[in-house]
Specification:
The protein is of the alpha/beta class. It is about 50% helix and about 20% strand.
Amino acid sequence: MQSSRIAAGTDEIRARIHGMWASVAARWGERADELDARGAVVADRLLEATRPVRGERVLELASGPGGMSLATAPRVAPGEVVVSDVVPEMVAIAQARAAALGLANVSARVLDLEQIDEPDESYDVVLCREGLMFAVDPGRAAREVRRVLRPGGRVALAVWGPRERNPWLASVFDAASAELGRPFPPPGVPGPFSLEDAGELAGLLRDAGLDEVEVAELAVPLHAPSCDAWWTRTSTIAGPLAQHIAALPQARAHALEARVREAVAPYATADGLRFPGLTLLAIAVRR
């Protein structure tokens, strides 16, 4: 009975996380080019690490609007890039963007990174940018990645580094916790910083049976032209936050915004907000 209750609770958390991202998918689509620009440095490093080449088959997990797949497709053509996300709305956006660019070698699928509905040993490269940290069971996801990789296949993924080194988001979560009177994200719900420890991340991949595991830090500072622009963006596309803000009474929403503006004031400059940021990049191979 206890194991069934745990399973039910886990499934409930998964459903909540999937719903959270579905609720912001349209806004991610509207800001897809902006999001691509923000993630370009990380995407370049992931592609540099895995070196996908002509004729190979590449899978992107938790793709969002699919910017990294769009960048990968010309490298492997006529090989295939499969862009995937657990949220159908995100997949539709990625598919439409690929079609608009005439990328005939990109196909789109709804896939859960914790249970990848693809055959064993079917990909040369697996990529995942800022998605693994939202997995309820990241160890299971890592094992799934290894399973779908061919021998000699490569995986590269990115997760956000330590909370204190990413104040562009940590400040918001701290303000939300203070205003709501409870921890944010809630205990037991994986959030952006759930894999912030480099040693834990490396161990996760090794335990999954992957080899030549390396984890490196990458500075990813964030510049916003104004506090208004930054808050509009953050409050509408940040999956863990957007739903909560939308559900708040207007007075509470304004109070939360005031707390956030006060928290980020130290990062104000003459040309807007400038935040430090840190991503962890993990690469590995399947022997």
